[in-house]
Amino acid sequence: MKFVATLRFIWVRPTLRGITGPLQSRSFQPDFVPKDPEAKLKRYKYPPFYYPYGLRSPPSDRIIQLAEQIAALPTEERIQIGPTLRERLRHPKMQPISVEGMDLGNQGGAGMGSTKMEEKKAEKTAFDVKLEKFDAAAKIKVIKEVRAFTSLGLKEAKDLVENVPVLIKQGVTNDEANNIIEKIKAAGGAAVME
Predict the structure, then answer these.
(1) Structure pTM?
(2) Residue 61: predicted pLDDT
(3) Where is the Large ribosomal subunit protein bL12 C-terminal domain (predicted)?
């Protein structure tokens, strides 16, 4: 009897697998219906104008007559229509925007922009230090000073010093450039600020 129950249990399992098998394989198939190759394309009718707030009714005859009368007015009178309507409808007057303290670039006028550029050229803030010459006896001291403020290796600093005249520091402030020149002078070299 136990054998028959076990046998019945075994026979039930394959039928469940038969049911679940095809369902799993169907889940990988596309869910859409293929397009009919002989079907014609649908043509949609678009409105001639796009109105974001819905369709507007055409203007009335009175509005059209008013627009024609305004268009027939001379230019001087047409200019007066806007301010007159603003007063009549009690719209607030448009205030000019203050541009004080704003950088408008070249919009401030040609003369104003050129004076600012001249001032910037006159006030130089970045300087270059150039090594002009050095004593042959003080070559090692000059190389040590160059290494101190350029963070170069020994070989690079030696090659730099041997190729005089050469720029040794670029884009430094006035005080820093004077400090470098004094140190090189104390070591036995001659440097200038450009």
Answers:
(1) 0.38
(2) 93
(3) 127-190
